[in-house]
Design goal:
It is a single chain. With about 325 residues, the chain is of the alpha/beta class. The protein has 2 domains: about 1-180, Rossmann fold (3-Layer(aba) Sandwich); about 195-310, Orthogonal Bundle (N-(1-d-carboxylethyl)-l-norvaline Dehydrogenase, domain 2), CATH 1.10.1040.10. Helices cover about 45% and strands about 15% of the residues. It has helices spanning about 10-20, 30-40, 80, 125-130, 170-180, 195-215, 220-225, 225-245, 255-265, 270-275, 280-295, 300-315; strands at about 1-5, 25, 40-45, 50, 55, 70, 95, 135-140, 145-150, 150-155, 160-165. The strands form 2 sheets. Strands 5-2-1-6-7-8-11 form a 7-stranded mixed β-sheet. A 4-stranded mixed β-sheet has the order 4-3-10-9. α6 (about 195-215) packs antiparallel against α8 (about 225-245), α6 packs across α11 and α6 crosses α12 (about 300-315). The radius of gyration is 19 Å and the shape is globular.
Length: about 325
């Protein structure tokens, strides 16, 4: 199993998959890669530190064809990296999309299957290189943060729902679940993985940009009357767009907001990236809903407003290399 993008979530997955008995490799870069090569992937979780000594590289050509490729990059970094994933892919390779936003295969089999969604897969390059037939869905609910090169601090959650795009229960899915569970993760198999992905998007579309704009933590955003009202409106708009493309939310919006508040003083990933001078996942998490709203003729006024603000915030932010 190759974890492509061994940052906070990818590193957590790498440690768990190694604990679960898989032969794990990791693709990373910079100081983080150097630290993992020297000291392993260090995961601080529940008062202890787990260390996985796995083969790490910045050149996938070194690794060859894999049984599973777990894409754990930030969603906006995937398009530029997709061609470098090609050496990892063989006829029996399965691609697990463990990133935020909508995965490249999301509209397979739908009326939008032939539509290029620029915020997700510009030029449809992921579709062409990775192939929808290889895809396994994975939704990332845990929170983690890279606190130093090679060091990942787990904040909460172990739940990574997985599922086949067509809702079947396949052998490749059960093998993946087995390794994940043996590694200490929760990996429920869902027959409605697209709905689970849209549920996660409903939180990301609002909590992430509002966090970056206000520098507030998740508990504050979800309980302050003003920011909670903004998030509620953005979630309602996202639900409406989702219904136009076949997605159904199994969780009421008020319950989703209350669940976010209960997580506590978590700094959303977009805020973390802003503070570190890194580019933010604006288009895959927020722009995509606006784009789909325009395609389906669904108004998204609050999303439009927040998207305009966070785009300007990104332009004004200093940038630093990874």
């Amino acid at each position: 199993m190759c974890v492509f993008g061994a940052g906070a979530i990818g590193g957590m997955l790498g440690v768990a998959l190694a604990d679960g008995g898989a032969e794990v490799t990791a693709v990373a870069r910079g100081a983080h890669l150097s630290a993992m090569r020297a000291h392993g992937i260090r995961l601080q979780i529940e008062g202890a530190e787990k260390v996985a000594h796995v083969r790490c590289t910045d050149d996938p050509v070194d690794l060859g064809e894999q049984d599973y490729v777990i894409i754990a990059l930030k969603a906006h970094d995937i398009p530029a990296a997709v061609d470098s994933m090609a050496p990892l892919l063989g006829p029996e390779t399965h691609v697990v999309t463990a990133s935020n936003g909508l995965p490249y295969w999301y509209f397979q089999g739908s009326a939008l299957a032939d539509t290029t969604i620029e915020a997700v897969d510009p030029g449809r390059r992921q579709w062409q290189v990775l192939g929808p037939e290889r895809a396994i869905g994975c939704v990332v609910f845990p929170a983690a943060e890279v606190t130093a090169p090679g060091v990942i601090r787990h904040e909460h959650g172990r739940r990574f729902p997985i599922g086949e795009p067509d809702g079947t229960r396949s052998r490749r899915l059960e093998q993946l679940q087995k390794v994940m569970v043996q590694g200490g993760l929760e990996a429920p198999i869902r027959d409605d993985i697209r709905d689970e992905i849209w549920l996660k998007l409903c939180g990301n579309v609002c909590f992430n940009p509002v966090s970056a704009l206000t520098h507030a933590t998740l508990d504050v955003i979800a309980t302050d009357p003003g920011t909670r009202s903004i998030c509620r409106a953005m979630m309602e708009e996202t639900r409406s767009v989702g219904e136009c493309v076949g997605a159904r939310l199994r969780v009421d919006i008020e319950r989703r907001l209350d669940g976010a508040a209960a997580i506590g003083a978590h700094r959303m990933s977009m805020l973390q990236d802003l503070e570190r001078g890194r580019s933010m996942e604006i288009e895959p998490l927020v722009g995509v809903v606006q784009e789909l709203g325009r395609i389906t003729g669904t108004p998204t006024p609050t999303i439009d407003l927040v998207l305009a603000l966070i785009r300007q915030r990104a332009l004004a932010a200093p940038s630093r290399p990874h």
